[in-house]
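Example 3.2
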Amino acid sequence: MTVEEKSKKKSEALSAIRIALNSDARKVDPLTEQKIEDSKSDRGLKKLYAKWFIGILIGQLLVMNLAFTAVGLKWMGFERYELELYLAGTLAEVFGIVLVITKNLFPQRGAPSLK
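Structure, written as tokens:
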């Protein structure tokens, strides 16, 4: 065998090994593929829920501010305690929703899930 033939056989063998290694690396466990798909769909749902919750919060705060302004301009009439209760309840609800969003949409890494 000449040096050229040996070099050619070595390169062919190396090419075959590279192809074999790359084809094995591309094979993914079906369970892993399913986990990746689940993660992608969870991320999409989180984005959708976040957009809806933010829209609801904006709407709720707008209504609260409009009611507060209307009472201040004497367009609506509420007793002082009714207005304070309404404002406090609305703010508590907003903070509660924000807490739920942050706890459930962005769980801590490594924390046990509720599933």
